[in-house]
């Protein structure tokens, strides 16, 4: 480590020169918080994340408040941050959510699909194909309105009810979202069971099926300590968009053991050491997560946040 709290830089020529981090802490992180976080604290969190150099900050969700009460303040929150000079996607489950988002000047949305029948049933009470049919008009209308659309795909590497998830099944649903018109597909390891070989196999299969890495993002959870290894495997296969959550906030309400998203600080430490550009100021980001941990009343689970904020 260098004196400035940064790793020594040793590039790997096999890896991309630049990675875009899709920051999910304010949405994926806070939607899994038990207590309600004041709207002003959320807005300040998003402002600080943008100031730390994150170019994409997923802001909130226009899911019905009954399902995600933690993000029921989307209408109040979005106008507080919408003029920030960063991309601010929001989650939209259906056309009603899209109407709410469009009314507020949202420019990017994300829809949420499942690679497995069990999760589609648990999350949306629908089959995988019924859920896709439900999204289709939302995606079409969003594209017509000039919005960028991201498709999240859950349970790509394992499912708490079904166990192993066949690669072909993930490829089928990913292709369906791509053909629907989603600009970007985010492959989620919702319960954190993936390992690097599995990541490589799925990315290769997707490439062979006409979905190149340039169109993909990866969304890893650190349940088994594999999130960074899996990220590195994805980078070697050409992926340049990585989802992460500041301070490691959040898990998954449907997967009890899924303890956390990949922490953005842990990711930035690795990418900084590899000389990969992210635009993120690690010290500013760490300070943001320390501040957010104070608001939530418990320490950040990120190893990098803990190491960099440790006081003798
Ligand atoms: Mg997540």
Quick recap of the structure?
The protein is of the alpha/beta class. Helix content is 41%, strand content 12%.
Structure report:
The protein has a nine-stranded parallel β-sheet with strand order 2-1-9-8-7-6-5-4-3. The model has no long low-confidence stretch (mean pLDDT 94). It is globular. The chain is 41% helix and 12% strand. The chain has a domain of 215 residues: Aldolase class I (TIM Barrel). With 312 residues, the chain is an alpha/beta fold. The two termini are 17 Å apart. The site of magnesium ion has 5 residues, from loops.
Bound molecules: magnesium ion
- How many E strands? 9
Tell me the strand percentage band: 5-15%
| CATH fold naming of one domain | TIM Barrel
Shape: globular
Low-confidence segments: none
Which architecture of one domain per CATH? Alpha-Beta Barrel
Question: What about the largest sheet?
Answer: 9 strands, parallel
Mean pLDDT over all positions: 94
- Output the radius of gyration: 18 Å
What share of the residues lie within helices? 40-55%
In the sheet with the most strands, the strands line up as 2-1-9-8-7-6-5-4-3
Keywords:
9 strands; alpha/beta; nine-stranded parallel sheet; 41% helix; TIM Barrel; 312 residues; binds magnesium ion
Q: What topology emerges from the helices and strands here?
A:
Layout: E1 20-23, H1 25-29, H2 39-51, E2 56-57, E3 60-61, H3 74-81, E4 90-91, H4 95-103, E5 108-114, H5 117-124, H6 128-144, E6 148-154, H7 167-180, E7 184-188, H8 196-208, E8 216-219, H9 227-236, E9 241-244, H10 264-273, H11 282-296, H12 303-309
Parallel strand pairs: 1-2, 1-9, 3-4, 4-5, 5-6, 6-7, 7-8, 8-9
Helix pairs in contact: 2-3, 2-11, 6-7, 7-8, 8-9, 11-12
The protein binds magnesium ion.
